[in-house]
Design goal:
This protein is mainly α. It has three helices and no strands.
């Protein structure tokens, strides 16, 4: 026996970190919620439930965001306690980068007309 054997955890112990308990019921619940959150947008679009397409788009975006949360909780098992909070920090960092990228892309695309060279706005110069 070496002097360091007593520092290793005994078999079956996990250094006191909370363990994620995965069950079939959790996966079934996540699957049912995912199917419902997928069927509702199809029904909204195919049935033309809302008169304005902008309302339909906003509802679809909201349902998509809810479905992302369902997948993160039930399938990826992501919560504030997993990995000591590092998973949540990585998620927040990723979301910030995605928002910056999308905002910058939309800003550039909507301001392309002001960045064009003079005279390119008219189609009379084309052969």
């Amino acid at each position: 026996m070496s002097a360091h054997d007593d520092t290793l955890p005994a078999h079956g112990h996990d250094h006191g970190e909370s363990e994620i308990h995965i069950s079939l019921g959790g996966y079934v619940t996540g699957f049912v919620l995912s199917v419902i959150l997928t069927a509702i947008p199809f029904w909204l679009v195919m049935g033309k439930v809302f008169a304005q397409s902008s309302t339909t788009a906003m509802v679809l975006l909201a349902l998509g965001a809810v479905q992302i949360v369902v997948h993160m909780i039930y399938f990826l098992h992501l919560n504030a306690r997993s990995e000591g909070g590092w998973n949540m920090l990585a998620l927040i960092f990723t979301l910030v980068l995605v928002v910056i990228t999308l905002t910058g892309t939309l800003w550039v695309m909507f301001h392309l007309n002001s960045n064009m060279m003079p005279g390119m706005h008219t189609t009379k110069t084309l052969p």
